[in-house]
Amino acid sequence: MTAVVIAALLFEFTMLWTIGVGVYMLALREFTGLWFLVGGYALACVPWAFGLLIATGQFWRSLTHALWIGAVYGLVGFLFLDKILGAL
User: Fold this and answer.
1) Which parts pass through the membrane (predicted)?
2) Between vectors from CA 26 to CA 21 and to CA 27, what angle results, nearest 5°?
């Protein structure tokens, strides 16, 4: 669990930056912002996928759970970005 948390924190700032830029670009009707959203979502899923794969050893179960966890993690990180930066 500690390795998963450390890996998630390493991806945190890059994930939030890509999601934020993607939302900003979509607000300006630049549809290349979708690539930033996809990249941020992938960054949100990667640490959880590896952590779950190491913990359970089941590839497909780890991948499907990481997709849900990554969606929640990316959304919460983006919505509470000001609180996260205030805590640091």
Assistant:
1) 6-27, 34-60, 66-85
2) 95
